[in-house]
Amino acid sequence: MNFYVQEENIIATxxxxxxxxxxxxxxxxxxxxxxxxxxxEKNPKYFRRCFLMDSSSSLPYDKExxxxxxxxxxxxxxxxxxxxxxxxxxxxxxxSAYNNWTDLLxxxxxxxxxxxxxxxxxxxxxxxxxxxxxxxxxxxxxxxIYDKDESKVNRWYFESNAILDINSPDAPFVFPLEExxxxxCDMFIFCVSVGVxxxxxxxxxxxxxxxxxxxxxxxxYAKLARKNNFKGVFSVVSDxxxxxxxxxFNESNKDDKDEFDFNGLGSDQIRGYGLGVMNGRAAFYAxxxxxxxxxxxxxxxxxxxxxxxxxxxxxxxxxENISNLLTDLTKKANLDVRKTGFKxxxxxxxxxxxxxxxATIRGQWHYxxxxxxxxxxxxxxxxxxxGAEFETYNFNETLFNKLKNTYDYLNSIYF
Length: 415
Known about the structure:
By secondary structure, this protein is an alpha/beta fold. It has 3 domains: 2-106, no CATH class; 114-272, Rossmann fold, CATH 3.40.50.720; 275-413, L-2-Hydroxyisocaproate Dehydrogenase, Chain A, domain 2 (Alpha-Beta Complex), CATH 3.90.110. The protein has helices at 26-30, 83-87, 123-135, 150-161, 211-227, 241-252, 275-288, 295-298, 320-338, 346-362, 397-413; strands spanning 2-6, 9-13, 22-24, 36-40, 50-52, 91-95, 114-119, 140-146, 173-176, 187-190, 233-236, 270-272, 300-302, 310-312, 366-372, 375-384, 387-390. The strands form 4 sheets. Strands 3-1-2-4-6-5 form a 6-stranded mixed beta sheet. Helix 6 links the parallel strand 11 (233-236) and strand 12 (270-272). The longest helix is centred in the last third of the chain and has 19 residues, at 320-338. The two termini are 34 Å apart. It comes from Clostridium simiarum. Residues 115-257 form the Lactate/malate dehydrogenase N-terminal domain.
């Protein structure tokens, strides 16, 4: 293992970086005041660009899959000297296969309010903007809005800026955007949707019905993010969230010849927001059907916003029957709302969208979809400087195998 100095940080790697960085001793490295970056070259299709190492991490980090969600305090004995530093959360994994990995060495926390830009002002997008305006005054400086339909932009510009609590007058200002300014922000929020079935014309899974149309649009904006050298967070709210995140990742990392060069969005930059409402619906049914008293404390949601969803009554005290019942009720909630004659967009826009996005910016626990071993998988996590920090668990094997089935299912749809 070689050690190199980078300002107040240390790079630990088997690679030879002597032409770019000053060499360091192992002793100096382990006593550094800054961070230690564990650098290794891993296939970007299956390994994250970066992440803060924690109790689920194991070195030399030869495989990335669902086991990242397991609590694992055992490190390879060859790397046991990293134990204390990992516990102190000062070790960051960096993937040198990404051409821009050096940009992450000096990455800083945003020490001001965020600028967010929302594209797509349909039912979901407009409601999401309303939620951000109402609740985001502490962390948002502005909300840019864009839609191909200029009348929608004008509508939400006038309406949302007139939403004001006189006791909290610092609500973020909402302003119209031109397409060229979409990526002048800290977070880009994709809410465009085409091919949404009309009420009464639903397929078995309404979300998958939107995949083909929405993937073409998200692909266009992912490539535009690459062209603009976007360094912020690329957020996907449109359905199917998990698969569109994968489309955004793949398409932004291809060159003009449609070949991967990984000069686009890093895996840590892309996040999907669809699982928050599934957790909210599970909590509702647990109470409404008197199924479970403590879902809000012990219950968890995993997987996609649709087929493959897994609702868990408790990770520590897993009951398959109760979990299956809650999962089934939650999956059908979308269609149940449609039976009332209305599209189910209010709870998704607020629970998955506004509330989860604001929790992301605040560094709080929330549900979102993140890159994990080449698949975008939804789970409970916090957003950090180097991407998602996952909540980890001592999984029941039956439950873990169900999660594995969902993980494989997502891979089978779009690879």
